[in-house]
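Sample intake sheet
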Amino acid sequence: MYIVCSDLEGVFVPEVWINVAEKTGIPELRRTTRDEPDYDKLMHYRMKILDEHGLKLHDIQDVIAQIRPLPGAVEFIAWIKERTQLIVVSDTFRQFAEPMMIQLGRPTLFCHNLEMDETNRITGYKLRQADPKRKTVEALQSLTYKVIAFGDSYNDISMLKQADFGILFRPPQNVINNHSELPVTYDYEELKEILNDYI
């Protein structure tokens, strides 16, 4: 039996940090996992920028509350869930995810946690585990599932390579250039055609 694992941002919803950058007028926050393969480096960079501008968790949550799913995402998730299980495996945080998950029909989500001080300032983060996307696929495979996975960024690559079938979905050209061995799709209908052979 096949099970589907997917990324969240850039696949089903717009990139949270790009939206934060646009709403706050801080272009440095546009940097995402599409640009920076080292997630720890990226998060420490983000926290430094937030501190420099006095932004706190509630400022980001206010932006997230306005984010809407990408066109066709809700219907595509429903289509998958009619056929098999879907697990969204994301490097987002529990404190960010709730409004997005409600709009997407609450697919199962594996993600991380933020650490805050008493003033609501983001002081750190706690990963669910190291290399969580790949390890999620490994765990499912240990339960004799076959896994189809798709995502768009550097932090998805280990998941896509571990999966029985991994697909880059709407990736930027730099990710394609660095991982040309992976198939690429650009819309949900094309992705459905591929998934139809497995689920």
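Comment: The radius of gyration is 17 Å. Strands lie at 2-6, 86-93, 108-116, 122-126, 146-151, 165-169, 184-185.
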